[in-house]
Amino acid sequence: MNMTVKVFDLKCNYGHFFEGWFSSHDEFELQNSKKIIECPFCSSNEITKLISAPYVTKSSRLEISNKAKIDNSSDKVNIVDIQSNLIKEMIKILKKAENVGSNFAEIARKIHYGEEKKRSIKGIVTSEEQKSLQEDGIEILSIPKSLKDPSSMH
Question: What is the model's pTM?
Answer without folding.
Answer: 0.45
